[in-house]
Amino acid sequence: MTTLQEIIGSYNPDAPLEQAWTIPAPWYTDQRLYTLELQSVFAGSWQVAGRVDQVSAPGQYVTSEIAGEPIVVVRGGDNVLRGFFNVCRHHAAAVMTEPEGSTHNLRCPYHGWTYSLEGELKGTPDFSGVCDFDRSVNGLVPLQTAVWESWVFVSIKPNDRGRWPDDSALTNLENFLGSDLISQFSLLHLKSLQWMERRHYTFDCNWKVFVDNYLDGGYHIPYLHKGLDSVLDYSRYTIENGPRFCLQWSPMVREGAEAETGAVRQGDRALYYWIYPNFMINWYDGVMDTNLVIPRGIDQTEVIFDFYFPDLSEPARERNRASIEVGQRIQDEDVSICKSVQRGLNSRAYQAGRLSVRREAGEHLFHRLLHAELKAAEEEQRQ
Ligand code: FES
Ligand SMILES: [Fe+2]
Fold it and tell me: What span, in angstroms and rounded, lies between the C-alpha atoms of 352 and 186?
């Protein structure tokens, strides 16, 4: 049987794009590699845990799952935003079970243990007589939490000094994102946008199939997304790689635009940002949606779409809804192709593929970043 080390080693990260291959098929189908990804790529990076608008007032909280671990982010009575593992210190049940909400304290539904908004253990029903039990060290386990633009990020990895929480979380997040990306976003004035709707999509594929599809430089757009194709200037589609992000952008055209798409995709440019490993921000002339890619199994991926608009007034809503429907159609078109790719990756006929120099530099970056992380994690595991 092929070892994990051999699977990782079967990709050559040093090949220039003209000579490069994709990551090989077992990267998308091997359970050991998938587990390693959760432990390294997802547990080791800053991950989006919610939107800032969900936790703007004291008592507001949002739950999520990162690398398979339950997470809760809550704004304390002191107005400080804190993230915790959403795991009760009694018998490990999830303390908060709703996706979001507002509360005075965090009460576990199992045996009623209660934590303050700041994560301290306050109430333990029927627990008198228990020896050597110190409430003060049985609060919810904190994790690094920081805000960038419209999103709350958390990192479940202990910081360099091996302890949580960390005052330097924001610096760490900014280092992770990089100053180039941060300054590009400051020009987009995202604060003027308001969140309107969330949609969940399930893809029958490995999470990397979805990311590859996103990063193919518009290669699939003329074939798979005819509506979208009609508003983009495909020949001038541009791919710019950063250290850990990729910006794909395209001038927009009005002539020949398909009616439904053209009505809601206007402006001069469409910007598609991918931030390693699993967050995408799509911006078209003041309208934005984001895609958060969550692995749910080796061949199951959930993608959470959030749609933002500058104007949520009743007259504007109809146009906003039309814009969301255009997005929905594009996703529906991607769902079936991603499933088809996953099936092909399992075929004995396929090992790996080549990359278009013109189109697929983003995928090349993704595969190299992934390789570096998995190689290091696998070596560490073996030691
Ligand atoms: S598991 Fe939470 S109170 Fe028992
Ligand atoms: Fe697509």
Answer: 38
Is the C-beta atom of 90 inside 6 A of ligand 1?
A: yes
| Two tokens, residue 198 | 């969330």
Q: What 3-state DSSP class applies to 2?
A: coil
162 SS3 class:
coil
Signed CA dihedral, 228, 232, 234, 239: sign only? negative
CA distance to 14, 180, 190, 283, 369, per residue, from 185 (Å): 30, 9, 8, 10, 22
Whole-angstrom distance, CA of residue 350 vs CA of residue 332: 25
Q: CA end-to-end span of the chain, whole Å?
A: 21
Is 33 a residue whose pLDDT tops 90?
yes
d(CA 347, CA 158): 39
* Polymer length of the chain: 383
Q: Categorise residue 138: left if φ over 0, alpha if ψ from -120 to 50, beta otherwise.
A: alpha
Ligand 1 atom 1: residue of nearest CA: 91
Q: Measured between alpha carbons, how far is 324 from 265 in angstroms, rounded to an integer?
A: 11
Phi, psi for 178 (deg, rounded to 5): 95, 145
Written as one letter, the residue type at 379 is E
Any atom of ligand 1 within 6 Å of the Cβ of 153: no
Q: Does 111 sit in the ligand 1 pocket, CB within 6 Å? A: yes
Q: Is residue 163's pLDDT more than 60?
A: no
Is the pLDDT assigned to residue 260 strictly greater than 80? Answer: no
Measure CA 116 to chain center: 29
pLDDT above 70 for 248: yes
Amino acid at 142: P
The mean per-residue pLDDT over the stretch 169-187 comes to: 93
Answer whether 29's CB lies under 8 Å from 345's CB. Answer: yes
